[in-house]
Amino acid sequence: MKYPIRAKLLIVIAAIFVFANMSAYAGNLDGKTFSGTTGIMGKKSSEKDEIMFENGKFTSSGCAEYGFGSGTYVTTIVGDKTHFTADIYSEKTGRIAWVGTISGDDLNATYLWYKKGKDVKPKQIKWFKGAIN
Fold first, then answer.
1. pTM greater than 0.90 (yes/no)
2. What are the sequence ranges of the domains in the chain?
3. What Rg do the C-alpha atoms of the chain give, in angstroms?
4. Which residues pair with 48 in a beta bridge?
5. What is the average per-residue pLDDT within 76-82?
6. Is 79 left (phi over 0), alpha (psi -120 to 50) or beta?
7. What is the CATH number assigned to the segment(s) 4-132?
8. 69 with 90: CB under 8 angstroms?
9. pLDDT in tens, 9-45
10. Strand positions, DSSP E, the chain
11. I need a surface site. Which of 2, 28, 49, 78 has the fewest CB within 10 A?
12. How far is CA 116 from CA 89, 106, 113, in A?
């Protein structure tokens, strides 16, 4: 599998959080829920998912089905876009790192599943595209 373009994209998005002159904080998306579709990067959608922000926590209903809990999210606002990151964990299957952008009522995200004990290379890279409920 090749990840160079995707890896570069994730580095750029991460750099936005690290180097932006805006403060990063949690909670400003609380009460928002986005419904949409998800799939393996480079492929058509294969599943539906619902992303929820509540009490400073990020939850993916699709990931919850596989034992992943809620995780703290952090946001950075750049212009009219809100960028967020969140890590969610499962005792049995590992960690999923989410990176996304909300523009208007639309959420676009990429997420990487790292199998438990193997945090170097992601087992899967997936995308999510949805709109606010």
1. no
2. 4-132
3. 14
4. 37
5. 94
6. left
7. 2.40.160
8. yes
9. 666 566 555 544 445 566 789 999 999 999 999 999 9
10. 33-40, 47-54, 57-60, 71-78, 81-90, 94-103, 106-115, 124-132
11. 2
12. 9, 31, 9
